[in-house]
Design a protein that fits this description.
The structure is a homodimer. Chain A is built from 5 helices and 2 strands; from the N terminus they run H-H-H-H-E-E-H. By secondary structure, the first copy, chain A, is mostly helical. Chains A and B meet through helix 2 and helix 5 of A and helix 2 and helix 5 of B. Chain A binds a DNA duplex through helix 4.
Chain lengths: 106, 106
DNA sequence: AATTTGGGAAACCGAATAGTTGCATTTATA
DNA sequence: TATAAATGCAACTATTCGGTTTCCCAAATT
């Protein structure tokens, strides 16, 4: 089964879960309270997030606290890096053109 | 049908297509040459990428040149922004701790 | 000890996904 | 003008996905 960060963040519910637990660790029940779907559905999402290492668990008694594994998010950032280079270059080019136009006006 | 950037980049083939056409515009046939699947399969991916505005088309005779709509990629960057803040903060905190330790040594 | 609570796992279901083959359409070429 | 090439679209298929319901187990509470 393919299980990478990109597939994990494709689902809007999972992105919402990520946003929730980014601030503080939460139990599945607490997370599920924020959604209309069942706890089991949330549990499934958590499993997917755990499998691709986007989330880590901390056992405390019978409760499990889930929190974001921020390091894994950098993978998306790393992938984006190559495209960021492109749009920055293009912005620079546009900037150069605008500078030239301004100089001509003066 | 849900059709956003996150769903678009979830598929590895689509990410490969994006990487290909980021450098220069390409026709479906030329793109398909780089994959094992059929031209039609690639065409479907291109349709999805077009629908979510990640890709733009340029008609030239009977050929269609596809190229990356780099602006749309910024949406992912924007989403990532909030998490970048988190990992930069954590890095700063770690940095502060290391600085303190170094000062204590001296 | 009996009951409640927190959470995972399995079985099932409908919809979406990614691929295929086949066909239609438009443009270029012989 | 007949044919080849470039492409999109539709129908079909197997698999995955996201959700539900049901059930089980371990930890807490009474």
């Amino acid at each position: 089964m393919r299980r990478d960060v990109f597939q994990a963040i494709a689902d809007p519910t999972r992105r919402a879960i990520i946003a929730l637990i980014a601030l503080q660790a939460m139990t599945p029940n607490a997370i599920a309270d924020n959604f209309n779907s069942t706890r089991q559905a949330v549990s499934k999402h958590l499993r997917i997030l755990t499998e691709c290492k986007l989330v880590k668990q901390e056992y405390r008694g019978r409760e499990i606290y889930y929190s974001l594994e921020i390091e894994k998010m950098k993978e998306v950032d790393k992938w984006l890096e190559q495209y960021r280079k492109i749009w920055e270059t293009r912005f620079d080019q546009l900037d150069n053109i605008l500078t030239k136009i301004n100089k001509q006006k003066k």
